[in-house]
What does this fold into?
Amino acid sequence: MHQHLRIGRSYLLVFLAASLLLGCPFFESEDERPPFDTPFDFSDDFYRLHGIDPDQVINRLTPSHPSAVFGMSRDSTRNNTRILQVFGGYDAVGVPLYYPLPPGPFKPDAFLDNEVGQNARVVADKFRAFIFPRQTGDPLGSAAPNRREDNLFDTSSGYFTENPLGLWRLTFPRYTNKALFTNEGKEVLDKIRARNGEDLDGTPAIRRLSEILELEDLGLLELRQRPEDGSMGPPWVV
It folds into this structure.
């Protein structure tokens, strides 16, 4: 039963992708809508309701951005910034998903100084967006040219009910020397390569959260995060 539930959630993400691309809601009520059912940024009130100061979202998208236009959403939780650019990635079980250009990254000062803000901090740390930097690139860089493959999102553990804003802690997996230069590591990586193919570095592509956790447990993958004080870039994104 648990496995069927996970698969069902993954297909919901694919269905969600269709609503993003078409720009219209498919859900009858607020309670039925998962995050990002329309390609608009959230309203300021919705940010504050869920613990985030919208004024502290760095370079937040506006209709003047090249990847956005002015629009009118039928969803009262959204503002008038309609997001045009869509990216592809994978959910926790490896099913492809599509998501709009994030409204912006943020640092600790974006969490409201109250109980709601404290809860937002817990949620933002719980749900990780895995960004895969090139082995020879910036180990904490999120720019597209620095990436070796598409992002993977941890959509497990109650994502749809606990994370209405879609808050993510940026996390950067990097293969260790044990993975790349020992027979034990190469044997494990070859199995993943046979299943998933290769990324732009010629190393095995990672498609599932379970693969990340297994590789980390074996000492073959290191998961790095930016310092929480934001001294090496915004640690979170919405």
Remarks:
- The chain is about 30% helix and 20% strand.
- The longest strand covers residues 168-175.
- Helices lie at 2-22, 44-49, 115-126, 159-162, 177-181, 183-196, 209-217.
